[in-house]
Amino acid sequence: MSTHNQQRDKIRAFFYSCTKLHYDKGGVVIRPEDEPNGVYLIESGFIKAYTITKYGEENLLLVRGSGGVFPLIWVFTGEHRNITYEAMEDTSLLRVSKRDYLEFLEKNNDVMPIILDMAIEAYRLHSERVMTLSYRTARERIASFLLVISERFGVEKNGIIEIIAPFRQADIASSVNTTRETTSRELNILRKKGLITTAHGHIGIKNARGLEDLL
Question: Fewest C-beta atoms under 10 Å: which of 8, 37, 85, 171?
Answer without folding.
Answer: 37
